Amino acid sequence: MTFDSVTDHINLTTADLSPPLPAAEPLLTVHDVAEFLRVPPSWVYDRTRRGDKDRLPHVKVGKYLRFRQSDLESYLEALRRG
Fold this sequence. Notes:
Elements: H1 3-17, E1 27-28, H2 30-37, H3 41-49, E2 59-61, E3 64-68, H4 69-81
Antiparallel strand pairs: 1-3, 2-3
Helix pairs in contact: 2-3
């Protein structure tokens, strides 16, 4: 058995043990969120500026606001529960 065949076998074995990476959730824009919630974009911007529990969860990418749909769904569920 050569050194290369041993290292190839080790690399294949360790690769099989690694869990698959989850697919990244696409980020939504302000306009995507406005369409999803059926509200004007100005409402979305307003809700990102609030300091209370009604603030929309978001992340800033440079000067741009981005949102995860799963965060928005959790936000809506929390509002529904009151």
